[in-house]
Amino acid sequence: MNTATKQSIQNNSLKNSGNSVVCRKCKSTQVVANKRGYSFGLMFKVLFSLIGIGLVIKIIGGLIGSALDSFIMRYYASIPLFISIFLGLPISILCGFKGRNSIVNGCMNCGNKWLAGK
Questions:
Q1: Residue 20 and residue 65: Cα distance in Å, rounded?
Q2: What is the DSSP letter of 29?
Q3: Which keywords describe this protein according to UniProt (predicted)?
């Protein structure tokens, strides 16, 4: 091919790909945009971290209470555990809704996913 033909092919490809979205990984143009849904992963992360923090506070308070031989200290150390158990589920359910209205682009060719606009 001569250079004039190569240049015309390149110009045509630039005109066709003006505002199209391409995959960042495989450079495919088969990209779909979907609305992000509820995040169960984030919900469980928040739930287990809240319960874990309550357990750690209970264990540390129990150790301090037994070292000081104080029943009141051991009793009050369990209050954060109960609070984290009872409030953990509603807080984690609300955290699962975070980011559900954002748009996620997905490549039909390689399966790569990324947030639109980033």
A1: 65
A2: S
A3: Membrane, Transmembrane, Transmembrane helix
Kindly give the pairing relationship between strand 103-107 and strand 31-35.
antiparallel
Spatial distance between the Cα atoms of 69 and 77, rounded to a whole number of angstroms: 13
pLDDT digits (tens, 9 = 90+) for 19-73: 788 888 898 888 888 888 888 999 999 999 999 998 898 888 878 877 777 777 7
Distance of CA 9 to the CA centre of its chain: 42
The CA–CA distances, whole Å, from 108 to 16, 28, 47, 96, 115 equal 20, 8, 33, 26, 15
Task: Return the DSSP state at 30.
Answer: -
Give 104's contacts (C-beta < 8 A, 6+ positions apart): 33, 34, 35, 36, 113, 114, 115, 116
Residue 97 sits at φ, ψ, to 5 deg, of -80, -5
